[in-house]
Amino acid sequence: MMNHSRITRQCNRVVLSSIPAVLLGLVSLVLLPGQLCLSTAAPEESSGTEDTDASGTSPDTGVPSTDTFVGENVLGSASAPVTVIDYSDFEDPVSGRFARETLPAIGVAYINTGQVRWVFRHFPVRSIHPLAQDAAEASECAADQNRFFAYRELLFNNQGAFSNSELKIFAAQLALDQGTFFACLDSGSKAADVQEDINSGLSQGVTTTPAFLIQDELHTGFMTATEFGALLDDAIDEANQADSASDFVGPLP
């Protein structure tokens, strides 16, 4: 297993490196035990649908774009050795805490550096979070206008404020085309997409949120960046070892 100082090393590197001026307004300081990290406000990015600037970086997230997962909301490089599938519920306080406190540091240390590809999927637990379904559908309407992760950030920062009118106010705050967004949300056309994510989670044994499939191994509940980083370190090491083994060619008989 790798030394679990990868987050510290990556954070130190980011602190010491120059930050492009376009991102200065988007970064925030995340203070972890013994670590000081610069992180993006919402370190995620969609599969080629999130807005990008000339450098190929999402202005909402600062994370390199990828177009590998058509129809999915994805962060990071298509060639990353490890994939994480994140099942979250916008009304769940634990999902919200992870998104606000843990994911920014993971984005800096693992996603931005090409080691992890992050796939976001919906898992609204409707029996206890009756507003989560509408919030999930609204986020997919925002995704149609290339703003899934910016909208996702608003949802996690305003948990519980998910009435129909409030969901539309968030769209206005992001300067989305309101007529298109309103029609999408009011039609319920994204319900099937959300249900597809739920079915995917159920097939993997997901019953609660947040839940994370790291290379097909299921983990649930809140974790700090250090705790989650330890799981990622193990997965990255295993993936790299597997790649090395597949590259080895023994002597011919």
Description:
The chain is α+β, with helices and mostly antiparallel strands. The chain has one domain (6-238): Glutaredoxin, CATH 3.40.30. 43% of the residues lie in helices and 15% in strands. It has eight helices and seven strands. The protein has a five-stranded mixed β-sheet with strand order 3-5-4-6-7. Strands 1-2 form a two-stranded antiparallel sheet. A hairpin with a 2-residue loop joins strand 1 and strand 2.
The general outline is: globular
| SS-based class | alpha+beta
Q: Span between N and C termini? A: 33 Å
Rg from Cα = 18 Å
Strands ordered across the widest β-sheet: 3-5-4-6-7
What is the beta-strand fraction? 5-15%
Extended strand count:
7
Number of helices: 8
In terms of per-residue confidence, which ranges show pLDDT below 50 for 5 or more consecutive residues? Answer: 1-70
Q: What series of H and E elements makes up the topology?
A: HEEEEHEHHHHHEEH
**How many structural domains can be distinguished in the coordinates?**
1
Main beta sheet? 5 strands, mixed
| CATH topology type | Glutaredoxin
Helix content: 40-55%
Summarize model confidence as the mean pLDDT: 78
CATH superfamily: Glutaredoxin
CATH architectural type: 3-Layer(aba) Sandwich
CATH structural class? Alpha Beta
